[in-house]
Specification:
By secondary structure, this protein is α/β, with parallel strands linked by helices. The chain folds into two domains: about 110 residues, no CATH class; about 230 residues, Spore Coat Polysaccharide Biosynthesis Protein SpsA, Chain A. About 50% of the residues lie in helices and about 15% in strands. The chain contains twelve helices and twelve strands. A seven-stranded mixed β-sheet has the order 3-2-1-4-8-6-9, with helices on both faces. Strands 5-10-7 form a three-stranded mixed β-sheet. Helix 1 crosses helix 10. It is globular, with a radius of gyration of 21 Å. The two termini are about 40 Å apart.
C-alpha cells in the first residue's frame, strides 16, 4: 500500500516538474533583446547599503562608468544604519561626482522590520528619474547596464528584470553555488518569457516610478513586501508589461557566499521571504514544486524498506537531470556562462535535500541579516 501511494505521488509530481521546467525553457526563447531607441529618460539608480565598506567603492565606480549620458542619470545611496565607513566612502564619491547623492535612514525604532524595502522606498521618494533602477552594494554593473535596461521600456512596459551572476572565486563550492544561482536566474527569465512572472532578483531591476506609486509602493514594512512581490502585483493588476533583459552586457556581477554556512543562511532568508503573493496561483505553483522535492526525498528514504521504489526514483531523477541540464544550458548560452558537467552532477545530487531542508526551515525561522531580526 505504501509503495503504491509513494509511486503514484512520485509519478504525478515528476510529471509536473518536467512540465514546469520545460515551460521555463520555452519561455527563454521568447525573450528579445532591446530595440535601439533614441529615447533617454531621466534615470535614478538606487542602492541600499548597510556595512558595505569593502564593496560600495567598486560598486560606485562601476556606476559612474556607465555609457548612459551623465546628465541623464543620478545615483542615490541609502545608508541603512551602517556602523562602518560605508557613509564616508559614499560622501567621498559625492564630493567628486555631482550625480551621486547619499541619504541615511533614521535609526531602527522597531525590532523586526525589514529595512531594505524601506530603504528603496526612501530612495524613490528622493528620485528625480522616471525610471528606477536598483542594484545591491556588493554588485558590479557592466558599462552598458543602464542603457540596455532603459531600452527595454516601451509605452506598455512598466517593469524590467535583468540577469545576475555570481563571481567565480575558483573554489569548488563557488562553482556549485554559481550553477544554483544560474538556475534561479534562468528560471526567473524563462517564467517572465512565458508570461508567468514569479521570480526576480533585486540586484538587477528597473521599473517606472509612476507604476510603483500607483500600487502604493511596497505596501507594508515586512521584508516580504519586496521587489518580487512588486513585480507580482504589477502583473496581477495588469499595470503594464513585465519584461526581462536577456543581453549578456546587462549581467550584474555579485559576490558568492563561498561557504556552506553563509550560502544556507542566504537561501533560507530567501525562502522565508516568499509566500506573500497577491496572485494565489503563484503560491500553488511553488507548493507543487516543493512537493516534487519533498515526495522525491521521501521516496528516496523509503528505498531501504520498499526496494521496488529504486527504479522509479532513478527514472524520476534522470528526468529531472535531463530537463534541468538542457534548460540550464539554454540560460548559460543566453548569459554567456558555462555549465561544467561534473559540477552540475554534484549540484543535482545535492539539490533535492537542500531545497527540502532550506525551504522548510525558511518557513518557520526568523530572518537574520547583518545583526537584525527581520519580520516577514
Amino acid at each position: 500500500m505504501i509503495e503504491t501511494i509513494a509511486l503514484a505521488l512520485l509519478s504525478m509530481v515528476t510529471i509536473y516538474y518536467v512540465y514546469f521546467i520545460t515551460r521555463v525553457r520555452i519561455g527563454l526563447y521568447s525573450l528579445r533583446n532591446a530595440s535601439p531607441g533614441a529615447a533617454q529618460p531621466i534615470v535614478t539608480v538606487i542602492v541600499a547599503a548597510r556595512d558595505e565598506e569593502k564593496s560600495i567603492g567598486p560598486c560606485l565606480q562601476s556606476l559612474i562608468q556607465q555609457t548612459y549620458p551623465v546628465a541623464k542619470y543620478e545615483i542615490i545611496i541609502i545608508d541603512d544604519g551602517s556602523t562602518d565607513k560605508t557613509a564616508s566612502i559614499v560622501r567621498s564619491f559625492a564630493d567628486r561626482y555631482s550625480n551621486i547623492h547619499l541619504h541615511s535612514l533614521p535609526a531602527v525604532t522597531e525590532r523586526g522590520i525589514g529595512r531594505k524595502p524601506i530603504a528603496i522606498a526612501a530612495g524613490i521618494d528622493h528620485a528625480e528619474g522616471e525610471i528606477i533602477l536598483t542594484t545591491d552594494a556588493d554588485c558590479i554593473a557592466p558599462p552598458r547596464w543602464i542603457d540596455i535596461m532603459v531600452r527595454h521600456f516601451d509605452d506598455q512596459t512598466v517593469f524590467v528584470a535583468g540577469p545576475v551572476a555570481e563571481q567565480d572565486s575558483g573554489k569548488f563550492f563557488s562553482k556549485l553555488e554559481q550553477l544554483e544561482f544560474l538556475g534561479l536566474i534562468t528560471t526567473g527569465a524563462g517564467l517572465i518569457g512565458s508570461g508567468m512572472p514569479i521570480i526576480c532578483n533585486g540586484a538587477n531591476l528597473a521599473y517606472r516610478k509612476k507604476a510603483f506609486y500607483s500600487l502604493g509602493g511596497f505596501s507594508g514594512n515586512g521584508s516580504s513586501n519586496d521587489d518580487e512581490s512588486l513585480m507580482n502585483r504589477m502583473a496581477m493588476r495588469n499595470i503594464g508589461r513585465i519584461a526581462f533583459a536577456p543581453e549578456s552586457d546587462s549581467v550584474i556581477i555579485t559576490k558568492s557566499s563561498n561557504t556552506l554556512t553563509s550560502f544556507l543562511r542566504q537561501r533560507i532568508r530567501w525562502a522565508n521571504k516568499r509566500g506573500h503573493y497577491e496572485d494565489k496561483s503563484i503560491l500553488v505553483t511553488l507548493v507543487c514544486l516543493y512537493l516534487f522535492f519533498l515526495v522525491f526525498f521521501i521516496n528516496l528514504l523509503l528505498i531501504p524498506l520498499e526496494h521496488r521504489l529504486l527504479l522509479p526514483v532513478i527514472i524520476a531523477f534522470a528526468g529531472k537531470v535531463i530537463v534541468d541540464y538542457f534548460t540550464l544550458r539554454s540560460g548559460a548560452r543566453l548569459f554567456r556562462q558555462h555549465v561544467p558537467l561534473f559540477h552540475f552532477i554534484v549540484a543535482e545530487l545535492l539539490h533535492v535535500p537542500y531545497i527540502v531542508i532550506a525551504a522548510a526551515i525558511g518557513q518557520v525561522s526568523s530572518m537574520q541579516w547583518k545583526g537584525r531580526s527581520l519580520r516577514r
